[in-house]
Amino acid sequence: MSTPKVVLNSTLNRYQMSEILIRVKNPVEVEGSKLYNQIGIRSHAKGIFFKDSVSGNELGNKRVFWIEPDCFIVNIVFAWERAIARTREEHRGYIASHRFPMYKANEKLVDLDYITYMFKTKKGQYLLELASPGGAGRNKTLGQNEFGKLEVLLPSLKIQKEIVKLLLLLDKKRNKQKEKIEELEQLKKGMMQKVFSQELRFKDIDGGEFGEWENKKLGKVAEVVMGQSPKGENYSTDTANTVLIQGNADMKNGKVIPRIYTSEITKACLPGDTIMSVRAPVGKLALTDIEACIGRGVCAIRGSKYVYHYLSYFNEMNGWNSISQGSTFESVNGNDIKNLSIPSPSMKEQRNIAKYFDKLERKVEVEKEKLVVLEEQKKGVMWGMFV
């Protein structure tokens, strides 16, 4: 694989944006009774999305333009948030308002994919912010003249195409990895449905059947510790203090992510406990491997891994929606949690179920770790190649 040094070792030429991107306008002659399909662009370079169809009468006097394939397109209102994209053949026949100017690449100087990738970087965002004078939010509109005057350093077309080839390869690998993760997560959901509905039963080591399941209250099979927030003056960023788990912001991908600390321990969780959010969104889970203080936004559930996996399934099925209450935001209390009915097979079958889903979860984690490596690799390449 090529390295970012390729750019540093090549000759760079300075151009204004108006030299390398040529404005394209193909206005729509709107007919009142006709339906039109519009596009939008997500911020943070997350691509084009499709809006609901709209009639010509609804468009009124709005100026709209046909989308041209193979163009750089930008939402001038959110350009500073990198609301940019590249149009493709699949977008032909769609329309966009005058707030979405499109540009063809001057193919003698710039590769369309190269310049689109450049605007996805921090460097590109910096340039878009420069051309978007004004205050915060909607007032920071991209100025067309300012955009045209932006200057950019470009390597030769040959080098640009080599860089694009490398980035497209990394994108392809990343997308495949995402698909692999999605397939595993769908498999896990499907297997949870089959196992906890008892459509699929595990066998004992001799191939025999396990006994019938019973329904038990969660409070009878696990200890539930409701959180209690320490006083605000005892919050801290000092890592010498105890980690404080307050709510969803302290959990990510099933793990506790230390964010804030406290010198006052009101209620504590232990390594191996399941942490569950009790305020909207109710039911988010994480396994903790540390002793920590738990605030009022979470509870600790001290039980088997079977309980953890069942709660994952229950949350996946939006089970807490029928229990949670509150007008401002939804929440559940200690009694709601302790009285939750849990299907309980024999301990041996519970262990088999937990072991199976532990392995499946680990497979997902391994694939997600690979995805992180690929994303970091791409970040590194983009950081080094766009100057």
What proportion of the residues form beta strands (DSSP E)?
15-25%
Shape: elongated
Main pleated sheet: 5 strands, mixed
Alpha-carbon Rg, integer? 27 Å
Cα distance, first to last residue?
Answer: 20 Å
The class by helix and strand makeup works out as alpha+beta
- The percent range for helix content is 25-40%
Q: How are the strands of the biggest sheet laid out side by side? A: 15-19-16-23-20
Mean pLDDT: 92
User: Unreliable stretches, pLDDT < 50, 5 or more residues?
Assistant: 1-5
Tell me the number of helical segments per DSSP (H or I, 4 or more residues long).
11
Using DSSP, what is the number of strands? 25
Description of the structure:
The chain is of the alpha+beta class. It is 35% helix and 21% strand. Helix 4 (112-120) crosses helix 5, helix 7 (157-196) packs across helix 9 (305-316) and helix 7 runs antiparallel to helix 11 (347-385). The protein is elongated, with a radius of gyration of 27 Å. The protein starts with a helix and ends with a helix. The relative contact order is 0.12.
